[in-house]
Amino acid sequence: LNTNKPTAHVREEIRLPAPANSWNAGGALPPGMTVAADRSSAVFERDIPVRDGIVFNVWSVAQGDPVGDYVIRVFVEGQLRQFNFAIH
Protein backbone atom coordinates (compact mmCIF):
# COMPACT_ATOMS: atom_id res chain seq x y z
CA LEU A 1 0.00 0.00 0.00
CA ASN A 2 1.12 3.50 -0.65
CA THR A 3 0.34 4.95 2.79
CA ASN A 4 2.01 6.32 5.88
CA LYS A 5 -0.86 5.15 8.09
CA PRO A 6 0.05 2.54 10.70
CA THR A 7 -3.13 0.51 9.99
CA ALA A 8 -5.50 -0.14 7.10
CA HIS A 9 -9.18 -1.01 7.25
CA VAL A 10 -9.73 -4.45 5.68
CA ARG A 11 -12.98 -6.27 4.97
CA GLU A 12 -12.79 -9.85 3.70
CA GLU A 13 -15.86 -11.65 2.39
CA ILE A 14 -15.55 -15.37 1.65
CA ARG A 15 -18.20 -17.47 -0.07
CA LEU A 16 -17.99 -21.25 -0.13
CA PRO A 17 -19.84 -23.61 -2.50
CA ALA A 18 -21.57 -25.28 0.49
CA PRO A 19 -21.60 -24.97 4.30
CA ALA A 20 -18.30 -25.34 6.15
CA ASN A 21 -18.50 -27.90 8.93
CA SER A 22 -15.57 -26.32 10.77
CA TRP A 23 -17.11 -22.84 11.14
CA ASN A 24 -18.82 -22.17 14.46
CA ALA A 25 -18.02 -25.66 15.66
CA GLY A 26 -18.30 -24.58 19.27
CA GLY A 27 -15.27 -22.29 19.25
CA ALA A 28 -15.14 -18.54 19.56
CA LEU A 29 -14.73 -16.46 16.42
CA PRO A 30 -12.04 -13.78 16.18
CA PRO A 31 -13.26 -10.25 16.91
CA GLY A 32 -14.69 -8.71 13.76
CA MET A 33 -15.67 -12.03 12.16
CA THR A 34 -19.23 -13.07 11.49
CA VAL A 35 -20.40 -16.33 9.89
CA ALA A 36 -23.72 -16.63 8.06
CA ALA A 37 -26.32 -18.86 9.70
CA ASP A 38 -26.00 -21.37 6.85
CA ARG A 39 -22.15 -21.45 7.30
CA SER A 40 -21.52 -20.88 3.58
CA SER A 41 -20.12 -17.36 3.89
CA ALA A 42 -18.25 -15.20 6.37
CA VAL A 43 -17.11 -11.61 6.77
CA PHE A 44 -13.97 -10.57 8.62
CA GLU A 45 -13.61 -6.82 9.14
CA ARG A 46 -10.93 -5.01 11.13
CA ASP A 47 -8.03 -2.59 11.09
CA ILE A 48 -4.71 -4.35 10.63
CA PRO A 49 -1.10 -3.12 10.79
CA VAL A 50 0.66 -1.93 7.66
CA ARG A 51 4.29 -3.07 7.58
CA ASP A 52 6.51 -1.89 4.74
CA GLY A 53 3.37 -1.15 2.70
CA ILE A 54 2.01 -4.68 3.16
CA VAL A 55 -1.14 -6.01 4.88
CA PHE A 56 -1.93 -9.69 5.05
CA ASN A 57 -4.19 -12.39 6.42
CA VAL A 58 -4.32 -16.14 6.00
CA TRP A 59 -7.29 -18.41 5.33
CA SER A 60 -6.86 -22.16 5.34
CA VAL A 61 -8.81 -25.13 4.10
CA ALA A 62 -9.84 -27.54 6.87
CA GLN A 63 -10.54 -31.21 6.55
CA GLY A 64 -14.16 -31.65 5.53
CA ASP A 65 -14.48 -28.23 3.86
CA PRO A 66 -16.63 -28.45 0.73
CA VAL A 67 -15.15 -28.98 -2.72
CA GLY A 68 -16.04 -26.55 -5.47
CA ASP A 69 -15.64 -22.88 -6.35
CA TYR A 70 -14.70 -20.31 -3.68
CA VAL A 71 -14.67 -16.50 -3.84
CA ILE A 72 -12.79 -14.16 -1.52
CA ARG A 73 -13.48 -10.45 -1.90
CA VAL A 74 -11.00 -8.24 -0.08
CA PHE A 75 -11.59 -4.53 0.43
CA VAL A 76 -8.50 -2.62 1.59
CA GLU A 77 -9.39 0.97 2.44
CA GLY A 78 -12.48 0.48 0.25
CA GLN A 79 -10.62 -0.83 -2.83
CA LEU A 80 -11.73 -4.28 -4.00
CA ARG A 81 -9.59 -7.25 -5.01
CA GLN A 82 -11.32 -10.54 -5.78
CA PHE A 83 -9.80 -14.02 -5.69
CA ASN A 84 -11.58 -16.99 -7.28
CA PHE A 85 -10.28 -20.51 -6.77
CA ALA A 86 -11.47 -24.09 -6.63
CA ILE A 87 -10.93 -26.89 -4.12
CA HIS A 88 -11.01 -30.40 -5.62
Explain what you see.
The protein has 88 residues and is mainly β. Helix content is 0%, strand content 44%. The chain has a five-stranded antiparallel β-sheet with strand order 2-3-1-4-5, with no helix packed on it. A hairpin with a 2-residue loop joins strand 4 and strand 5. The N and C termini lie far apart (33 Å). The model has no long low-confidence stretch (mean pLDDT 91).
Topology of this structure?
Elements: E1 7-15, E2 33-35, E3 41-49, E4 68-76, E5 79-87
Antiparallel strand pairs: 1-3, 1-4, 2-3, 4-5
Average pLDDT score? 91
The fraction of residues in strands falls at: 35-45%
**End-to-end span in angstroms?**
33 Å
Query: Into which percent range does the helicity of residues fall?
Result: under 10%
Give a nutshell description of this structure.
This protein has 88 residues and is mainly beta. It has no helices and five strands.
Keywords:
88 residues; five-stranded antiparallel sheet; 44% strand
